[in-house]
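Could someone model magnesium ion with this protein?
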Amino acid sequence: MSGPQDPTGAEIVIRALKDHGVRHIFGYPGGAVLPIYDALFQDEGIEHILVRHEQGATHAAEGYARSTGKPGVVLVTSGPGATNAVTGLTDALMDSIPLVCITGQVPTHLIGMDAFQEADTVGITRPCTKHNWLVRDVRDLPRIMHEAFYIATTGRPGPVVIDIPKDVQFKRAPYVGPSNIKHKTYQPRVKGDLKKIEQAVEMIAAAKRPVFYTGGGVINSGPLATQLLREFVRTTGYPITSTLMGLGAYPASDKQWLGMLGMHGTYEANLAMHGCDLMIAIGSRFDDRVTGRLDAFSPNSKKIHVDIDPSSINKNVRADVGIVGDCAFVLEDMIRLWKAKQLKPDRSALSAWNMQIDGWRARNCLAYKQSTDVIKPQYAIERLYELTKGRDTYISTEVGQHQMWAAQFYRFEEPKRWMTSGGLGTMGYGLPAAVGIQVAHPGSLVIDIAGEASVQMTMQEISTAVQFDLPIKIFILNNRYMGMVRQWQQLLHGGRYSHSYSEALPDFVKLAEAYGAVGIRATKPDELDDKIKDMISVNRPVLFDCVVDQNENCFPMIPSGAAHNEMILGDAANDPAVTEAGKVMV
Amino acid sequence: MSKQPGSAYFLVDTKAKEIRTTLSVLVDNEAGVLARVIGLFSGRGYNIESLTVAEVDHLDHTSRITIVTSGTPEVLEQIRHQLERLVPVHKVVDLSTETPGIEREMALIKVAGAGEKRVEAMRLSEVFRARILDTTHSSFVFELTGSQQKIDAFVDLMKPLGLVEVSRTGVVAISRGAEAM
Ligand SMILES: Cc1ncc(C[n+]2csc(CCOP(=O)(O)OP(=O)(O)O)c2C)c(N)n1
Ligand SMILES: [Mg+2]
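Reply:
Sure, complex below.
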């Protein structure tokens, strides 16, 4: 069947990657993947980014994927290489990010023998991938490689793992190209049911207090979905909010934009969700950080839910009309039917609804007390936004208060500019994600808005950035606390600050220098602008230690399990009543 | 939902009514497919009351998995969609609510004893139409096919008569009428 002229398994991997247009891979070598590294060495077409920890490779690939719309590719060795990748795979599964992760495995005859660096990789990664394969026969490898890309990138995207034993990497088999990949059982549905779409547009036209609630699915679907969403939202004139993952699909500067919703969403977005009579959910999944207490979630509304994943519909919240399909296809049909039926929104109802919303906006829920001697974290993000907004900028974040402030105060006008760990909430995501984004967009400004605790989880990837001349900017809101943990302890655990203080912090400026990067520190509000400008103008990786108010809390906040109208606002917001209610809850 | 004293946490205690259902799942018989199905149930906290699996088409390499599960109607809908999301799954049919189905289970039941008890076990096995697969002077192995309840009833009757052990296949099911699943 196979002859000496056929490629080896390792060569098949490289050929398949190239056939799928892969230009960059993120990886770390080891015994069980050496044949693939050898094939990589002898090949010119693919650039390998050597990370410092396999978790970093997965997050870098996520950043790469989300900022480009292309799959991110990871290459790691067996055993510890594979287990280190698990966090990133889980993160990608939760946030629907296409990753193809190739893991080396011990030779087939050693599987099950507790061989050196053996781990049951397909077993371990089964629940954190969309699908995975152990390749036992090199003849299956071309097909599996192509299937892997197909499954990772279509339907609801997600991570896949291909586990390749070392002997399979050496064996030879004919290579078969990726033309017309079809799968027996996996056939995602992209077109929505027209009858339901028709029913939906009629409900949309008849609504008195409608709101669009969109999510990461719109961004995953691609630029067309974003364009159609904008068109439809403007045609109807209805207000729109989005999840953390959906930011940028609709421009933050637009007057119909309500800001983000959910646990740290705006007052107007959450109250519009609570008080609406029609919710139009597109590519969003009613996550508990969005809905709050389920039995009090938007009690008087009908819900239309568009999602590519049938299991998302009716999972947490019952949809009155559930439409399975790709957002772009469904939106296209919605717009077409809206026009064909010459539907019009109810203008007078809409203006009453907008007035009510304006009342909520007037509470100015994001207001905070400014200070002249300490940098307020919100102010730092506001300045960062003002000083970078005209540029070609990509933002990633770690997880915590800084992440929520970034979502609230950095304003996104375009999709794929905002990379954050939403579903899994992985501290340590942002720095390696920035590495991946910068690899994909060498000329752009890439900033990781970080916390001093999170950034230490994957700090070593700054070394990757230095090695590959990736001028990423790590903007640390250093509050010397695991701020989000401290906030919960203050509000929900009687102020008992159990292990949330960031002890023994490194000197981030010296740390940057030790890595061969640039360190900058700002401690006073009046020096912030100049230092941010310095950061932007350096064409090297920067660790920016922005020393901020230690005790600032992130508001608004809906405590876990509370309802949308039980929001706690900050003292600076114009709403004494709710603040009192908030105090009662503590 | 209840509110814990002195805190803003809400703890959910749901006691919604659960129903039992039988699912037929047609899958590609590839390595790990059963682990995917079982992992899905344990990972998402779904119940498995019974699960059977065997290859049903040796050319196409498809297997049929029959799962008896229980949950609220919402959970049962989720189970179905989550199963359909697994890549090697061809089709999922609910044989309790969607299309009427027939269910059977087989059991092998070992009973040991002498005298009156032995005669009584033998007599009851005839009532239940069990077959005797193995006999010694002091024991029987019965084969019994039927609904889960029928097997439960027989096993209960055997307990005072010298029940030694039971081996059950779990439920297999198929829809009524001319159509395939
Ligand atoms: C890997 C991981 N471990 C623990 C947590 C729980 N957690 C959420 S936010 C947070 C604190 C983050 O602190 P920091 O990075 O300094 O951000 P801040 O909230 O202070 O802005 C922790 C520990 C998490 N999200 N991820
Ligand atoms: Mg912090």
